[in-house]
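Technical note accompanying the year-one report. For the benefit of new consortium partners, we illustrate the data format agreed upon in the data management plan: each record pairs a sequence with a structure-token string. No post-processing was applied to the example shown here.
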Amino acid sequence: MHKVKKPFRCAFDGIHAEDLKVDDVRDFGDLASGLSSAGLIGDDNGDSQKAAEKAADAARKAAEEAHTALAKMTVAQLRQLATDEKIELGPDDKKEVVIEKIIAARMKQA
């Protein structure tokens, strides 16, 4: 895998061209040597994977913190919060279900 260092157009299938942007990560196959020599791409070094893992960890931590804060609220407070945030709840939804729906809705918005 290689990372785009300078934007350029590439037709991987020889027909359909696409604009590649800086930091796009792709498998350039046989083209890698020439593109690398031209300074258009470089080794990925797993940077994109590390960034994805870091973002996933941050999202997981934020969800845990939100869960902890919401768990301190009463069911009535949670239902009001869900109403204020326009989150649909079922009439028989238990506290944990309400919390999960609030967290899911907030993550979807982010």
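Partners are asked to follow this layout when depositing records. The chain has a mean pLDDT of 89.
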